[in-house]
Structures are given as C-alpha cells and as structure tokens.
Amino acid sequence: MEPLSPFLFAAATQRDRRRLARLKQEGQIRPIGPRLYTSLREEEVPAAARGAWATIVSGLFPGALISHRTALEYVPSPEGIVFLTGNTNRRLSYPGLTIEFIRGPGPLADDPAFLALRASSVPRALLENLRAEPRTSTPRTVSIDDIERRLEQLLLGGGEEQLNRVRDRAREVAEELGWHAPFAQLEGAIGALLGTRPLDRVMSAPAKARAAGDPFDTSCLDRLTLLFGELRTRDLPSTPDPFASAQHVRNKAFFESYFSNYIEGTTFEIEEAAEIIFDKKIPAQRPRDAHDIVGTFRLASDPDEMRRVPSSSDELLDLLRSRHRTMLEQRPEVKPGRFKERQNRAGGTFFVHPQYVVGTLRHGYELHADLEPGFSRAVFVMFLVSDVHPFEDGNGRIARIMMNAEMTAASASSMIIPTVYREDYLLALRALTRQHRPTPVVDALARAAAFSRLDFSSYPRILAELRRRNWFEEPDEATILTLDPAP
Questions:
Q1: Number of domains composing the chain
Q2: In what order do the strands lie in the sheet containing 7-9?
C-alpha cells in the first residue's frame, strides 16, 4: 500500500487518472466533493480540511484570488468558509470546508502571490471588507471593530507613514474599481486615528481611544476584565494583620524585599542581605544588586508610603513612577521613574507596547476602583502592573509593592512570595497571561495571604521559623512545603 497525501486532486493526465481509479477501487481513497479525494478516515476529514485549506484551494483553483475576510485572516471563517473572487458566484462544499466564489474584479498588479493563488493586498482587502454586502447567514467580511483594530496595528507597527501608504494605495484601488463609498469610510477611520478627522469616524472603543491620544492594549484589558470578574464573584479571604510593632513592620519588610528580589534573580544568602539592610554593608563586588534590595526595603519598610493607594488614574501613574524612582535610583541605566520606551518581553510573551502603557493603566484603574479595598484590589493591581510591565526593569518588584500597599492601607497582612513558592506564583500569573484563566492567580495569592500572616517582631525567631517552613528552599529542592497559617 503506497503512502498517500491526506488530500488528492482530480488528475489531468490519463496515467494519473488510472492511478486514482486504482486507489479508489482498492479503498485507499474516496471522493469527498467536486474534484477532491481523501485518504483519511471519515471522522478525521473536517479538521484536516480546515487545516489544509490553502493547499486544497491551491490544488483545486490555481490562480484564484483570495479575498474579503480570508485575505485579512488567512484562515477559514468560523463557519469554515474560504472566500475567493471570481467571474461568477458559486459555492462548493466539502466536509469541514466550504469554498465560496464572489463575482468581482480579478487580481491587481500588487495583489501578492500565495502558494498557487493570489491574495488581495491589504488596501484592497480593507476596501472589500468595508463594502456593503447582501444579507447572508455567512458574513464574508470582518467587523468594523476588527478593521479598526488592524488599522491601529498598522499605525503601531509602521507609524503614520505606513498608514498613509495604505490609504494612498486604497485610493488608487478605489478609483480603479469604483469602490468610492468604502474608501470614504476607510479614509475617515485612518484620518481619525491620525488626528486629522473627527473621532466619530471610528466606532470601536480602542480606535476612539487611539484617536483621542490615549490608546490601550485590548488583549491586556481582556485579561484584566476576566480577573475583575473573578474577584467580584469569589468569596475572598480577610487577613487582618494582628501584629503592629515597629520591629514587626521592619523585619517583615526585610523578608518581603529579600524574597521579592530573589524571584527576579537578585540572589544573596539571607545573612548577606541582612548585613546589606541592617548593617549598611554594600558589597564592593555587587553594589547594584545590593542597592536593588535597599531600594525595595526603603519602600516596604515605610509605613506612610505603604498606606498610599491611588484615588485616581493620575495618582496611579504618579505612584508607579515615584516608587520605581525610589527603588532603582542607583540604577540610572534602567531609567528610574520613567515608563519604558521599547517593548519588553519574557520568553515568548510580549508585554504591552510603550504607546499603550498609560492608556492601559488608566483603563485598568477604572476596574481597580470598582473592587473592594484590600485583597481584591491588591491582587488586581499586582496583575495590572505585571501584565503591562510599564518599566524597563523592576516590574515584578513594583507590582508586589503596589499589591502590599493595598493590603497595608486596608490593615490587612502583607503578602510574601518565598523562594519555595516562586513557581506556584509565576505559573499562576502565566495561567492568566497565556491561557486566560484567572482562578489560579487568585488562589495562589489567597494562599500567600494566609501563610504570610506571621509575627515578624523577633528576627532570630522568625528566621528560624521560615527555615522550618522551607521558605528559602528552591522549588525543586523542597518536596514538602510547610505553609502553616499563623497560630
């Protein structure tokens, strides 16, 4: 039995036709629609056809023009339809895949090649998707919100020059094909995004924000909205702090600063860190790392500073900048107190673009303000800062400072993420960032709020207790984590 491709096409030569006839007679292939055969089992065909849509369309209709929503998305529509432009209207159906031809003009000179096909250029595809279409149950166009999002992405990636090039080419296409109405709509939207047309020429909230000069990251806001919903509907812990002595505050701030820096890779032995903070011994070989711990401690140990929480979006921005400046004032290379100028990333995760930082923080604050003070706001502001990543460096530490300020302002016990709990915490963040699951981060911090509620007033005693509880162990070294609540 010869190895076969998942999909085979009607043969053009006598030899190939005989081969297909033989394979069909042997039961190795079967027809699934006009001019198309498969070697797959029946239940495998629909998903495979969708995945191989480009190969199938290229094999069936070489030279055809991919158009409308398919030319923007390069995947079948939610209904499994691929849209092409041809000289007649017709539809061909296969398991899991429909190919729909729409009568219209053929390829233009700049419509790019794609496999054996052509595809509408971006300017042409935008016009196609803005044209009024007959009322159908399978829309061939994307939504206005989607078009405006794509225009905003063009502006973000290539600047005004890129968007102007799209508009100029779209004008030429519109003149050539007589598509004047969709071009007028496109020109108005582009003008609004560039600030040369009224705001009412765009409809979506992100495009209006961009046109108003305050753009935000919609993906980040989606994640924040999920977290907001989780926090509004969960039965959340109340962890009042019964310990209020100056020594308790000072020692707990020390351990908070030590572990918060350890998470980010600024690692010292606990005895070295104690000398840096309490004895003011800055090691000559690692002054910058030492100052990172000192800067974090300066914030965490200041009761007045840790009771400051934002009452407006402007105050949120000011607090972030001032705390970042305090924490990293000895690190001028990371621009303390200034929002980032380049997009940052962690592995395959790209954080919010610099142009979206202020707008996303402002929109995030609006959700934050509608939550109950204490744990809810603490979790939310921590994730807001972590997900936006507004600074070049120090984002995780600032996120946890903002979190614990919310807890302190509500007379709740601040949270510490010990070394042994690092992976639980980071995995919970990734569950929301990458998988849109908010429950793990709320669960992880609820647990942290419980096990951080200890009496830190005696340094020798709490150090021994934290060692007993495995707080200093690496996650892969401590198979059993002792996280007893406070007695």
A1: 3
A2: 7-9, 36-38, 30-33
Residues 272 and 197 in one domain: no
Q: Report whether pLDDT(366) > 90.
A: yes
- What's the rounded Cα separation, in Å, for the pair 394 and 414? 19
* CATH, residue 445: 1.10.3290.10
If you count DSSP H runs as helices and E runs as strands, how many of each does the chain have, helices first?
19, 11
Domain span holding position 101: 7-121
Query: What average pLDDT does the chain have?
Result: 93
Share of the chain above pLDDT 70, in %: 96
Stretch 365-391: mean pLDDT, rounded? Answer: 97
Distance of CA 205 to the CA centre of its chain: 18
Please indicate, yes or no, whether residues 173 and 312 belong to a single structural domain of this protein. no
This prediction has a pTM of 0.78
Q: Looking at the structure, do residues 180 and 257 belong to the same domain, yes or no?
A: no
Contacts of 254 (CB under 8 A, 6+ apart): 273, 274, 277, 278, 297, 301
Same domain, 300 and 353: yes
CA distances from 394 to 289, 326, 328, 331 (A): 12, 11, 8, 10
Q: How many angstroms separate the CA atoms of 358 and 391, rounded? A: 11
Q: What is the pLDDT of residues 194-225, one digit of tens each?
A: 888 877 787 777 777 877 778 889 899 999 99
Tell whether 234 and 323 lie within a shared domain.
yes
Q: Using the 8-state DSSP alphabet, how is residue 309 labeled? A: -
Q: Are residues 279 and 382 in the same domain?
A: yes
